[in-house]
């Protein structure tokens, strides 16, 4: 592609901001716009010196860019999108541009699944990075839906062959309603979990399964699929693969079997058996069964692609997680505040289980903003109650933009609070972040752990709560 002026509508999405960085590395002039920017991607774009115009406006497209990337959150009616269509400015999607601009001649390594894909992609990229210290040809390019702490970024571009991608099952654009991962044509694939999610674009679980089956069908015969063995739905999705399929998990028949999993001081250690014989002992500076499984999946794929076991062990032992995945945002007056992206009942459950393991003596608070298109609906109300019940105290915010969800489909957080109260759990509902901070700050005590769960900015609660606790400590002193 010749050097161009490329404008991204919806640039602050995790994948869009990463694409902006990749395009800048290719020498293009990159601009973008969004309705609201919040960390970590706003910080990433600022560090790249990529200007973000707010809000959307036709003026952001004057003079006309050579190409416009339309984010998948953009719908007809958006001011800039309508101007692009009226003026016939060339446009495409993120996924299609990645395919055409970055994947030709590369080895495409894709991590997909309803849960765990961002962390697993980050682990796989770090394994390749560590391995490249002795084998430079393994240095990876990557595109991750979050900021990988080991790299301090969510993207990288090299001239080498490996390109590691987080394969998102969400739709591609307003003009392409298929999943983004269908554009990535994996040479090797990790498939973590498959569950119903994205209720705004998938009618039911069968549609979700069809999408993942189609992804598996793209892997060539010479390729590999590494798939979780603990879910019948995953088994169904890989059952007709034309390539070799290797399973990982706790199952006795797994090719990559996790055994002797132990947690201590926020770290995990376990053994991996390969076809019945011990293959390696792995260690990870993170708690949580789900993180051990994610690491095993990354290790299995990397090993099958020729990376030495010692490099895999070294990489996992030094893995530094991902922004907004069990991220400690502050420790103030003895209270630990955790930021986590969990926005599905299964992810919420695994996050709270991991925090129980990491902080066994703590009083655990779950502060949830129902924000994702699935969580704002009532499809998982019962499962949400079960997941949140793992916390000692539960606080819910009002549903984000509730008015945009049809009345009969809306989640009613009052019902979730009632269900938790009936189980004897302390749960309460507040309208917004300010009301939550005002209510819980006086109740927090040294030793408490507060897990703030949202896939958005949550009205800056991550800054507001520590500030209130700091003020409280000053008054006391």
UniProtKB/TrEMBL annotation:
The keyword Cell division applies. Keywords: ATP-binding, Cell cycle, Cell division, Cell shape, Cell wall biogenesis/degradation, Ligase, Nucleotide-binding, Peptidoglycan synthesis. GO terms for molecular function: acid-amino acid ligase activity; ATP binding. It holds the Pfam family Mur_ligase_M. Residues 111-302 form the Mur ligase central domain. Residues 5-99 form the Mur ligase N-terminal catalytic domain. Residues 324-456 form the Mur ligase C-terminal domain. One of its GO terms (biological process) is cell wall organization. This is UDP-N-acetylmuramate:L-alanyl-gamma-D-glutamyl-meso-diaminopimelate ligase. It comes from Alloacidobacterium dinghuense. The gene is mpl.
């Amino acid at each position: 592609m010749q050097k161009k002026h490329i404008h991204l509508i919806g640039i602050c999405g995790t994948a869009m901001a990463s694409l902006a960085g990749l395009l800048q590395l290719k020498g293009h002039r990159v601009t973008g716009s969004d309705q609201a920017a919040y960390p970590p991607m706003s910080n990433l774009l600022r560090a790249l010196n990529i200007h973000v115009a707010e809000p959307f406006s036709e003026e952001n497209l004057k003079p006309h860019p050579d190409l416009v990337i339309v984010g998948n959150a953009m719908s007809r009616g958006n001011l800039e999108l309508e101007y692009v269509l009226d003026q016939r400015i060339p446009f495409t999607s993120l996924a299609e541009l990645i395919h055409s601009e970055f994947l030709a001649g590369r080895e495409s390594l894709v991590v997909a699944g309803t849960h765990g894909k961002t962390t697993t992609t980050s682990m796989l990229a770090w394994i390749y990075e560590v391995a490249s210290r002795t084998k430079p040809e393994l240095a990876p390019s990557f595109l991750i839906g979050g900021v990988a702490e080991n790299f301090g970024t969510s993207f990288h571009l090299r001239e080498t062959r490996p390109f590691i991608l987080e394969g998102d099952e969400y739709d591609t654009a307003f003009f392409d309603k298929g999943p983004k991962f269908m554009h990535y044509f994996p040479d090797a694939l990790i498939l973590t979990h498959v569950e119903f999610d994205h209720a705004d674009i998938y009618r039911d679980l069968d549609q979700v399964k069809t999408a993942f089956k189609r992804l598996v069908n793209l892997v060539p015969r010479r390729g590999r699929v590494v798939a979780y063995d603990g879910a019948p739905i995953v088994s169904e999705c890989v059952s007709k693969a034309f390539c070799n399929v290797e399973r990982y998990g706790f199952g006795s028949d797994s090719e990559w079997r996790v055994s002797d999993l132990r947690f201590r001081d926020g770290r995990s250690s376990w053994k991996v058996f390969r076809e019945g014989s011990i293959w390696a002992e792995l260690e990870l500076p993170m708690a949580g069964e789900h993180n051990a499984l994610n690491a095993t999946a990354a290790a299995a794929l990397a090993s099958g692609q020729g990376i030495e076991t010692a490099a895999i062990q070294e990489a996992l032992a030094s893995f530094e997680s991902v922004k907004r995945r069990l991220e400690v945002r502050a420790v103030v007056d003895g209270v630990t505040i955790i930021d986590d992206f969990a926005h599905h009942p299964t992810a919420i459950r695994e996050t709270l289980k991991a925090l129980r393991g990491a902080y066994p003596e703590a009083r655990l608070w779950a502060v949830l903003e129902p924000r994702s298109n699935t969580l704002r609906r009532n499809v998982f109300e019962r499962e949400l109650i079960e997941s949140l019940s793992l916390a000692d105290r539960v606080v819910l915010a009002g549903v984000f933009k509730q008015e945009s969800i049809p009345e009969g489909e809306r989640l009613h957080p009052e019902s979730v609070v009632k269900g938790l109260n009936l189980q004897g759990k302390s749960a309460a509902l507040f309208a917004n972040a300010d009301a939550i901070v005002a209510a819980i700050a006086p109740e927090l005590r040294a030793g408490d752990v507060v897990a703030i769960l949202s896939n958005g900015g949550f009205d800056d609660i991550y800054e507001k709560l520590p500030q209130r606790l700091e003020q409280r400590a000053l008054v006391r002193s």
